[in-house]
Amino acid sequence: MTMARLPDAPWRHRPGFDALCALLGAADGATRLVGGAVRDGLLGVDVADIDLATALLPDEVTQRLSQAGIKVVPTGLAHGTVTAVIDHRPVEITTLRSDISTDGRRATIAYTDDWREDAARRDFTINALYADPATGEVYDYFGGLEDLEARHVRFIGDPAQRIAEDHLRILRYFRFLARFGALPPDAAAYAACRANANSLMALSRERIADELLKLLALPEPSAVLRLMIEGGIFAPVLPEIDGAGLARLEALIMREQQAALETPPAAVLRLCALLPPDAAVGEQVAARLKLSNKARKRIVTALAPPPAHGCAQELVYRVGTEAAFDLILLDRTEMPRDMCALSHWNIPVFPLSGRDIIALGIVAGPNVANLLSTSKEQWIAEGFPDRDRARAIAQAQVAEFLRERQNS
Ligand code: ATP
Ligand code: MG
């Protein structure tokens, strides 16, 4: 076993974390950091979520923490996980366990006090590293340190068998590959994912969507998506995603960089790029993946033809900032030079109402709405001038309307 130590980092000193570890007997070796925190901590990247593995049973964990006044939520009691809340953030605490029987979707578990057994039920070697929360000493049972160094995403044990136990691991594999992996991928892992792509059909669509969106949210997922498309991974569940979609995604990522957005890239928008520019397809995929109404609407708007518009401001005015940016980034319309200014542009409010039209001598009724709307269109075409100009526009529209009515 290679000796290694977790480098010191601010997240290890989150208020209350030392006390939490002390309560869980970390000094005696009963509780260790595990998973993403150790992996990302070793890579020196920021750790957002802390996971702990413990030899204590969930009841014991709950009792010790509650007695000390720490809030504990039984988030996944069926598989041995409770969540403690410290410093307003969750820490997941999972009792050491092994998977007794699996059906591709869920496991029947048994608790254990054997760290190696707990490591063996985890998916990839780089995800099965443990560390002493105080000293940072790392425990590695399956060569995870070496693989991490080599950026090698490798299943623990036989990939095909591990995928048969839990089909979601196919998608997790590609996600971790996109995040940490060097290409080409591990031959055995890639072959097993390809051969078992059909098993994804047995998973709930929500879990597929969740994994896929996590993958798409990564800075540079294209190379791995190419492997997935070439390997037929999407064919069973999302046959709409093909090579043309990949080319659109690559173009999107280039434009995201060009636009130097202040917000991180949106996974849902990247999904849009992968889909053909067809609102009906977007609607179907959103329904199939059981996405939220908000996400569904966003996808449909991004894949539908953009409304007629002149400048980018006009597009923002008509569809809102988010949808306009989606359409621009998807290259459905020209990209303005200053995307930053556009993102900070305050959408103006049309300064007139029906009352202003009535005050100009039009009797309440449909003519008021029509004149208001033609005035508004001219106001948009003139680039959203101030209230005085808006009134002048309305005055001219009303005068013309009255003239035409007289002549007919
Ligand atoms: P992230 O930064 O994405 O949270 P993570 O490694 O912490 O990465 P989680 O999904 O939070 O990933 O899971 C925590 C740990 O639990 C993993 O590192 C892994 O050891 C184990 N794990 C999670 N899902 C599975 C799975 N489907 N099969 C086997 N082990 C898993
Ligand atoms: Mg995690």
TrEMBL record:
<dbReference type="InterPro" id="IPR002646">
    <property type="entry name" value="PolA_pol_head_dom"/>
</dbReference>
<dbReference type="Pfam" id="PF12627">
    <property type="entry name" value="PolyA_pol_RNAbd"/>
</dbReference>
<dbReference type="GO" id="GO:0000049">
    <property type="term" value="F:tRNA binding"/>
</dbReference>
<dbReference type="Pfam" id="PF01743">
    <property type="entry name" value="PolyA_pol"/>
</dbReference>
<feature type="domain" description="tRNA nucleotidyltransferase/poly(A) polymerase RNA and SrmB- binding">
    <location>
        <begin position="190"/>
        <end position="242"/>
    </location>
</feature>
<dbReference type="GO" id="GO:0008033">
    <property type="term" value="P:tRNA processing"/>
</dbReference>
<dbReference type="InterPro" id="IPR043519">
    <property type="entry name" value="NT_sf"/>
</dbReference>
<dbReference type="InterPro" id="IPR050264">
    <property type="entry name" value="Bact_CCA-adding_enz_type3_sf"/>
</dbReference>
<dbReference type="GO" id="GO:0016779">
    <property type="term" value="F:nucleotidyltransferase activity"/>
</dbReference>
<dbReference type="InterPro" id="IPR032828">
    <property type="entry name" value="PolyA_RNA-bd"/>
</dbReference>
<keyword id="KW-0548">Nucleotidyltransferase</keyword>
<keyword id="KW-0808">Transferase</keyword>
<dbReference type="GO" id="GO:0000166">
    <property type="term" value="F:nucleotide binding"/>
</dbReference>
<protein>
    <submittedName>
        <fullName>CCA tRNA nucleotidyltransferase</fullName>
    </submittedName>
</protein>
<comment type="similarity">
    <text>Belongs to the tRNA nucleotidyltransferase/poly(A) polymerase family.</text>
</comment>
<keyword id="KW-0694">RNA-binding</keyword>
<keyword id="KW-0819">tRNA processing</keyword>
<feature type="domain" description="Poly A polymerase head">
    <location>
        <begin position="32"/>
        <end position="154"/>
    </location>
</feature>
<keyword id="KW-0547">Nucleotide-binding</keyword>
<keyword id="KW-0479">Metal-binding</keyword>
<keyword id="KW-0460">Magnesium</keyword>
<dbReference type="GO" id="GO:0046872">
    <property type="term" value="F:metal ion binding"/>
</dbReference>
